[in-house]
Specification:
Largest sheet: 8 strands, mixed
CATH topology of the largest domain: Dihydrodipicolinate Reductase, domain 2
CATH class of the largest domain: Alpha Beta
Oligomer: single chain
Number of helices: 9
Number of strands: 16
Order of helices and strands: EHEHEHEHEHEHEHEEEEEEEEEHH
CATH architecture of the largest domain: 2-Layer Sandwich
CATH superfamily of the largest domain: Dihydrodipicolinate Reductase, domain 2
Length: 370
């Protein structure tokens, strides 16, 4: 279905994630990527040649272009707030990579400016719009596991210094296992169970120094500035109780990725950093787990969130990967650190609506208008 009036998009940040976004955006006629920009203009020019984008611009020129409706912010996390505020100040709708900011204060600045300007904010991850997590949502909404009563989520490994050519930033403010990978897990849980009303946690820096073993930086010493093991308990407003562990201190494990336990069965949820994955269900009267066919397409990628936001802009409906959702996830993450430091339960300062599920049977390259 051809959209007569596509939303014109400019992408700021032409790093490693750029190819996934440009290809994902081009799967939807409602998005027209007309320019890209980077602090390194040569990098933007290289992406223009590689992906046949119309214009390579400086960041300032992209923000000043009156034809651009929506800015996708793919900069490093430490620059998210600065670039996002600049885009909103220039009168552009904003879609940001995760996290929305590095603190509640940054998130609040972004949300307040958007409200003042009458602009929309969207934020990654949009993997919850893929077939794997949408299938899980439908199973829960259809009552296949009864009333959800608890959940577990585990993201455990031993950090990126064994393979990443520049691993330092993973151990600085705005990263660590919680801020780097937590948004995927927390967004999936809020999508499936709704917002969090109370939480507590324990966290620690297990090793104050890490030694890089990747070939490019072998032997490089990294000073760790953020907790590398975070164990949280989440009380959802729906009544379910969740357990979340994110860790860069685990050599190996047999833990599930995400499981939801209900009054009538259990649901095994695929990796929330993917758009597909196996969905397994076992009801109370069954002897084994069985795989559930996907109810929604897995043939989507990064960019579906921006497309959903563009549909919201053009047709006046709420968009699913909303700023409110991302701000709530940011608030949860910062609150987990704070709860551990203060040794108490905390009530998040934010909340959000549970994102609406996608309809079943959407044609490729389209989303719902209403």
């Amino acid at each position: 279905m051809l959209v007569v009036n596509p939303v014109k998009v400019g992408i700021i940040g032409c790093g490693n994630i750029f190819p996934q976004y440009i290809n994902g955006c081009r799967a939807f006629d409602i998005l027209d990527v007309v320019a890209c920009a980077d602090v390194d203009l040569a990098r933007a020019q290289s992406r223009v040649a590689e992906f046949n984008v119309a214009n390579a611009l400086t960041v300032e020129a992209l923000l000043a272009d009156p034809t651009i409706d929506l800015v996708i912010n793919l900069t490093v996390p430490q620059a998210h707030a600065e670039v996002s505020l600049a885009a909103l100040s220039a009168g552009k709708h904003l879609y940001s990579e995760k996290p929305l900011g590095l603190s509640r204060e940054e998130g609040q600045q972004i949300m307040s400016l958007a409200a003042q300007k009458g602009l929309r904010v969207g934020c990654a991850p949009d993997t919850f719009l893929g077939g794997g997590l949408q299938t899980c949502r439908k199973l829960i909404d259809d009552g296949r596991i009864g009333q959800p009563v608890s959940a577990v989520a585990f993201m455990c490994g031993h950090g990126p210094e064994s393979w990443h050519p520049n691993p330092d930033f993973f151990y600085k403010r705005g990263a660590g296992p919680l801020f780097d990978m937590g948004p995927y897990y927390l967004t999936a849980l809020v999508h499936l169970l709704g917002p969090v009303r109370r939480l507590t946690s324990s966290s620690q820096i297990s090793f104050p120094e890490r030694i890089a073993t990747a070939r490019e930086v072998y032997g490089h010493k990294i000073t760790v500035e953020v907790p590398t093991h975070v164990a949280g308990v989440l009380d959802f407003a729906s009544g379910a109780v969740g357990t979340l562990i994110t860790s860069f201190d685990t050599w190996s494990h047999h833990l599930p990725i995400i499981e939801i336990y209900g009054s009538e069965g259990s649901l095994s949820v695929p990796d929330p950093n993917t758009f597909g994955g196996s969905v397994l269900l076992r009801r109370w009267d069954e002897n084994t787990w069985h795989e559930v066919p996907h109810t929604h397409s897995t043939d989507v990628g990064r960019g579906i969130g921006a497309a959903d936001m563009a549909y919201g802009i053009r047709f006046g409906r709420p968009h699913r990967p909303s700023g409110d959702l991302a701000f709530h996830v940011l608030d949860i993450m910062e609150s987990l650190f704070q709860a551990s430091a203060e040794g108490r339960h905390l009530i998040p300062a934010t909340t959000c609506d549970r994102p609406a599920p996608l309809p079943v049977g959407l044609p490729p390259g389209t989303l719902d208008r209403a």
